[in-house]
């Protein structure tokens, strides 16, 4: 079969399992009847070598058709072929219209998923809970706008190859039913399908091998592609099961197995990547189109959100699109099923929630490693305040991201107080940050420990104390302002909240000190020591986190 004919067969509107396919009709009924008579005669007369001949000939036809499709995929025209015939769609306006391969595949798998959803709904009913949920967001690796990486294109081509194999096997099964005696069906179908099934299994092994090499280089978009491919192969599996016997189904299960193993390895290595960054191993540089982990494990100079944090959260958010697929991977891991059993012993986890809970367990593990890495990385800063601001920036970013993406609800299935725990962490970090002012505030208090002026005067030996207190406060404040102007707090509400807390914490204490000692005659040059009024200190505190001032 020519590639364009096979692609037309793949992209027709009808259900892929429909036996009334246009290509099947290419062999007239009279011809099939005659071949059936011949086959019956051969079988009855013990000339059963025809079974081997027929199986080998048809096997070669399938292999040539698939190889031609693979060669066509390597050509420059791949991905933008116009549909050849309007009769496949029943509307002349649809003929010859160019549509990207990604968009066509997206439509195919949406229809298959919707049919599976409808069938499951009718069988199980809404009350039982459904593992397969209707999902119209099939724009993952098949979204034409975001498509681009070599691994993703390779996976897309492989999905088309699987669809092509499924169509060809439907065709061959129909021919077999019409031509070969029923007692020989399984034997012949096994012979004619074996080579092509072995080819797609071998191709899956080659593709997953390349993906694993990409993952070893910390290119995590390849992992997302695997999850998407696995989801679509799972959707396609029922159609293949209809036409294959147990032997072929067992062979083809190798495709699912390789994809699942690769997905599991990707999830495991991602956790290791977050963990290893704490030791300086370097994590990742991501974007929506490509994800590439680089070396640089140094923290940002301005203590803003660490690249590891934003990239990890980005990756976790992408996993939500593959919740059921990842659930099917994690349920094969003993540690995850043990965690799920412990959760189920304390609360009811429905069938529909099972995959979400498994993903929640995984996300919780990643966040645990991320929190540890952030704490470890904060030690690279020299001053306490910047350490706390770095941790505060990152912890706040994690919580807000989890809330924005609704991922907090997934984690809550496994840790009900996750949100409150992060809120407590943020409050504790704010307190730890405010405590960093203790050195500065020690210069202006406690007031009861300082000399008490009488009629605006202090004793001669006490003047030096007042001079030293003002001088040390000014020096410390100048240093803190210089340091914290260079710090970045990206979130507006967090930034303004910290400034407000600083003002409320420091200005009243300085104001009390200032009112008592600013007019005391403790120096011939008081302006040298009384440099800042309380309003000046307020303005300086409000200049924090802005190095343009």
Description:
This protein has 549 residues and is mostly helical. The protein has 19 helices and two strands. Strands 1-2 form a two-stranded antiparallel sheet. Helix 5 packs antiparallel against helix 6. About 14% of the residues have low confidence.
Kindly list the characteristics that best describe this protein.
2 strands; 549 residues
Oligomer: single chain
Percentage of residues in DSSP E strands: under 5%
Q: Roughly how much helix do the residues carry, as a percent range?
A: 55-70%
| Spans of at least 5 consecutive residues with low confidence | 13-25, 85-98, 116-148, 281-296
Helices and strands, in order, run as HHHHHHHHEEHHHHHHHHHHH
Shape label? rod-shaped
- The tally of strands reads 2
Structural class of the helices, strands and pairings? mainly alpha
- Estimated radius of gyration: 34 Å
Distance between the termini: 71 Å
Biggest sheet architecture:
2 strands, antiparallel
| Tally of DSSP helical segments | 19
InterPro entries: Cullin_repeat-like_dom_sf, Exo70, Exo70_C
Pfam family, one: Exo70_C
Domain Exocyst complex subunit Exo70 C-terminal: 163-543
Function: Component of the exocyst complex involved in the docking of exocytic vesicles with fusion sites on the plasma membrane.
Tell me the layout of helices and strands.
Elements: H1 3-11, H2 29-44, H3 49-73, H4 101-124, H5 150-179, H6 185-216, H7 221-243, H8 246-277, E1 285-286, E2 291-292, H9 307-319, H10 323-330, H11 334-344, H12 351-377, H13 384-404, H14 407-412, H15 418-435, H16 438-441, H17 460-485, H18 492-517, H19 534-542
Antiparallel strand pairs: 1-2
